[in-house]
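Handout, page 2. Input:
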Amino acid sequence: MNGAYWGLTTLHLLGKLDTVDVHEVVSWIISCQHDEGGFGGNVGHDPHILYTLSAVQVLALFNKLDVIDVDKVTNCILSRFCETCCRVFLSINKYTILDLVLLNIYVRYCRPAKRRWVFFRGYMG
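Output:
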């Protein structure tokens, strides 16, 4: 999924995205989606936030976001992947660009919903 995003974005930047069969790409992306809303890296792979991001980016590149249930994908990100993001953040034990991404997600979605996140090395949000 990630490779598809980078390759298709490169074709777009080169003005050659029209050489791709949009229906075939969109069908493949949809076949990688799981019932709870997340996307795997390929058919039969477990869903992951990075693959989900890449799937959404590719669909946006083709202006095909209408083929997915946006609420379902959003709920998957907030319920399944928020915890995963925090574990990754804490295991890295460094402040990187990931800090900004997590802080943005936390402030915009999890804090207002009063979700409990272990954030910034033990702070309970």
